[in-house]
Amino acid sequence: MIQGTTRRRLLGGLAASASLAAVIIVNATVNHAQGDTPPAAPPATPVSVATVEQRDLVAWAEFSGRLEAIERVEVRSRVSGVIEAVHFREGSLVKQGDLLISIDQAPYLAEFERTQAQVLAAEARVALAAGENERGQQLMASRNVSQKDLDTRFNALREAQANLRAAQAAQQTARLNLDYTQIRAPISGRIGRLDVTIGNLVAAGASAPLMTTLLSVDPIYAAFNADEKTVLDALASLPEGNRSLEQIPVRLTTATSEGASFTGKLRFVDNGIDAASGTVRARAVLDNPGGKLMPGQFVRVQMGQARSEPALVINERAVGTDQNKKFVFVVGADSKAAWREVTLGASNDGLRIVTSGLKAGERIIVNGLQRIRPGATVAPESVPMAEKSELRAAKTELAQR
After folding, report:
1. Could you tell me if 232 and 143 lie in one domain?
2. Domain ends where: 194, 215, 236?
3. pLDDT tens for the chain, residues 1 to 401
4. 81 and 190 co-located in one domain
5. 139: in domain
6. Is-above-0.70 flag for pTM?
7. Long-range Cβ pairs for the range 122-129 (8 Å, 24+)
8. What is its main location (predicted)?
9. Residue 273 located in a structural domain
10. 221: which of 18, 68, 335, 369 fits an S-S bond (Cβ 3.0–4.6 Å)?
11. Phi and psi of 275, rounded to 5°?
């Protein structure tokens, strides 16, 4: 009885072992069959690509600067007197010759009329002396007058003529003083605040109080410090035989110009380099109709060169950073993205100049850079290197910096 039970247990264990072995064999066969099937390839990543272009560009370098008035005048009185009227509004634009301030004319008008009377009297004496001299000449012909009498008459004429010239000079001085009571704008520009009001007595000469200031606004200077390499490169770009600085273009933006730039020309480069900073003081001149730009205003100045040179340009968004390296992804004919280190130059009209690492005609990824790994397959879609909206945004960013 015991032997029969033991036999049944042994047979049951063998059957279970056989079943387990069959399951293991089947699973191994299935797994082996699945291992022979390659995994599905990941889908291509859609990206925007643009073709690297070569353009003839003027190399621009950017600096901080300030606007300066070309002319600055301190308005003071040239005669003493009481201020009667003010004919301008503080902060307004005035033209050369406009009446600014009137000083009491009464004493100067009286002086002018007195000198005018002196001139008339002197003219009468000249006429009398001239007649006496002429009669003396006639009498001398008939020997009815002595030479001494003739000399006396001639000297009287010369003295009368000298007195007339002195009276005329005094009249001219009186006329000038009378004119000086009408203080007029010596230049066109923007006038400042009035420091002396109506009713005050002002002195003349060096002790005369400052009445107001007048700054020219059109044209206007933009002064800035440029590094020596940029200045030397710009000077080297000037053609032989014509070294005029005005061939070097300059443009600038302000915080309120909303990306719009003002164009001008280089007017002045200092005759030496500041040893402490390695910079050169430079100044550009630009038209400023309407006085939109104001002296003292902060500006971003870009100085170019006298001639253009070929250069490769790419979109800033196409550039990635890997520690201290700049790179782009180049898309080949097989639609695979290849990592490429590049060396960048200056910005130019919203694009970035590439000095090494790329060739004209190569395609680079300009959008979706963060989703790409080297060697990845991409689905390229051709787009312009930079849209107009991007260029406008770049100019606006320049103005706001």
Report:
1. no
2. 215
3. 444 444 455 445 444 454 444 444 445 444 444 555 556 667 888 888 999 988 888 888 889 999 999 999 999 999 999 999 999 999 999 999 999 999 999 999 999 999 999 999 999 999 988 888 777 777 777 776 777 777 787 898 899 999 999 999 999 999 999 999 999 999 999 999 999 999 999 998 777 889 999 999 999 999 999 999 889 988 988 888 788 898 899 999 888 877 678 999 999 999 999 999 999 999 999 999 888 899 999 999 999 888 888 889 899 889 998 888 999 999 998 989 999 999 988 777 778 889 899 999 999 999 877 888 898 888 888 898 876 545 454 444 444 44
4. yes
5. yes
6. no
7. 122/160, 122/163, 122/164, 122/166, 122/167, 122/168, 123/164, 125/160, 125/163, 125/164, 126/157, 126/160, 126/161, 126/163, 126/164, 128/160, 129/153, 129/156, 129/157, 129/159, 129/160, 129/161
8. other
9. yes
10. 68
11. -65, -30
Answer with the one of 215, 238, 264 that is the final residue of a domain. Answer: 215
**Which 8-state DSSP code applies to residue 284?**
E
| Secondary structure of residue 273 in the 3-state scheme | coil
CB 66 within 8 A of CB 255: no
- C-alpha 198/C-alpha 45 separation (Å) is 78
The strand pairing partners of 73, in sequence order, are 214
> Rounded to an integer, what distance in angstroms lies between the CA atom of residue 329 and that of residue 323?
16
CA distance linking residue 77 with residue 110, whole number of Å: 19
Residues 220, 298 within the same domain: yes
Q: Does residue 13 form part of some domain?
A: no
85 and 197 co-located in one domain: yes
Residue 41 maps to a domain: no
Q: Report the number of distinct structural domains present in the chain.
A: 4
Cα dihedral across residues 109, 110, 113, 118: positive or negative: negative
Could you tell me if 344 and 353 are in contact, meaning their C-beta atoms sit under 8 angstroms apart? yes
CB 226 within 8 A of CB 282: yes
Are residues 270 and 315 both part of a single domain?
Answer: no
Q: How far apart, in Å, are the Cα atoms of 209 and each of 127, 140, 183, 213?
A: 46, 63, 14, 12
**Residue 222's CATH number:** 2.40.30.170
Q: Are strands 45-51 and 363-367 parallel, antiparallel or unpaired?
A: antiparallel
